[in-house]
Amino acid sequence: MFFPLEVFVTVYELKNFTRSAEKLYLTQPAVSGQIQQLEQTLGVQLFIRSPRKVQPTAAGEVFYTYAKRILAEEAALMRELDVHQRSLMGSLRIGASYTIGEAVLPSLISQFVSRYPQVELEVMVENSDKIMMEVCSGEIDLGLIEGMSSKKELVREDWLTDVLSLIVPPHDPLTKRKTPPKLKELEDRAWVIREEGSGTRAFLDDLFLKHHFTPKRKLILSSNTGIKEAVMNDLGISILSQYAVAREALHGDLALLPLADVVLERPFSLIYRPHHPSLRLEVFLDFARSWVHHIHPGGVKSGEDQGADESDEHRFQA
Q1: Which domains does the chain have, with CATH numbers?
Q2: For residues 171 and 191, what is the distance between their CA atoms, to the nearest angstrom?
Q3: What is the pLDDT of residue 191?
Q4: Mean pLDDT, to the nearest integer, of 178-203?
Q5: For residue 151, with 0-12 CB atoms within 10 Å meaning exposed, 13-18 middle and 19 or more buried, which class applies?
Q6: What are the HTH lysR-type domain coordinates in residue numbering (predicted)?
Q7: Where are the beta strands (DSSP E) in the chain?
């Protein structure tokens, strides 16, 4: 990192360009060139050259003291970095809810392991309630869940804002409307919803309770994939994260609609135990916090997908 300083110190201590070149495995002209470049950069002469020996100037004496100190600091820094790198070696156990684990986490992990290949990630995907319990018990180090944590003993951070949408088949009559529906208008429809313990189920339960809403029929499924397939096959309508349905919306397999009277947003949260997080966990948390600034706030979208959303919004405003 500071090779010119190393060349200077070697020449200073050996008082000879040829012996310095041998010690550094360089040619004598290469050593002379390094010293000349350093003198030009500093604007001072560091050595008095003679055929028999090399003598440091007064400026060279001063520079030697600082150069030795800088090289010592560099060596200490490299040792510290080596300890840091070795501390990162090992496993980090992460748990994610289904929506995050299937639609968000793969991109985050891909970038993380590229930067920190020495960290061995163990990832499990369960519903949010199970993730909270396993963070509490110490079975996993970090949880990424939908909504808030019910476990007061855990540290919880808002991570990113999740935007949800009403999802219907593309041929559903709701897609022909010029204005978005109100929630109460959908009470006679069949709804496909997640199982208890799911973060998405908790969001819907709170939403339905707040608006005194009772679906006529409910089909309960334990995965987002099952819900999407059910909606595509006319078994009902649902509300899911835009992260979870981005691909189907892009390909025209599902239509994403807003509701006129409800804001469909919630936080995704990071949860972990408060005492003495490992270096691996601290590094992953810092990386995850930074990573969210590089994704679209409404979901992982391509330019085409974003354009499709804008056309839907324009249609409802017409």
Answers
A1: 3-87 (1.10.10.10), 91-317 (3.40.190.290)
A2: 17
A3: 97
A4: 94
A5: middle
A6: 5-57
A7: 47-49, 54-56, 90-96, 119-125, 142-146, 155-168, 190-194, 217-221, 238-241, 255-257, 265-272
